Amino acid sequence: MRVVVYNIQEFEKQTLAKANAKVHDLTLISNPLNLDTIRYAEGKEVVIVSENDNLEKTILDALKRIGVKKIITRSVSLNHIDLAYAGHLGLHVANTPAEDDSPKSIAMQTIQNLNSWVNNKCLGVACHCAFDCSKKSSAIL
Hints:
Helices cover 30% and strands 13% of the residues. The chain is an alpha/beta fold. The protein has one domain (2-138): Rossmann fold (3-Layer(aba) Sandwich), CATH 3.40.50.
């Protein structure tokens, strides 16, 4: 998948790259996702954000307009994403819900989410899509 990772910290880069193992085309951006930096998401299927990125209606509209289909947050919290509006737009949303919140665990969960999407599988407890989809019936809980 073609992916842009926003708000990535230096300590996250190596663990995410190792977890990815050159499977997905990752673009790593240290800047937060906002209207000035959204251009980095052009041509990408997925954006990966941190809980410091505010994905409100304006940002979600802009992401949808440029063709982004999926969002992963590198956090358990989803308070920074307007899930109802993302669902209205048909955007898939996932988080990294494991209790282990080490950089390695978050990186592994993030790549596992990408791999599940590539294999057309539901993400189970990491899935926070605000709409029904055919994949939810095959969820691994």
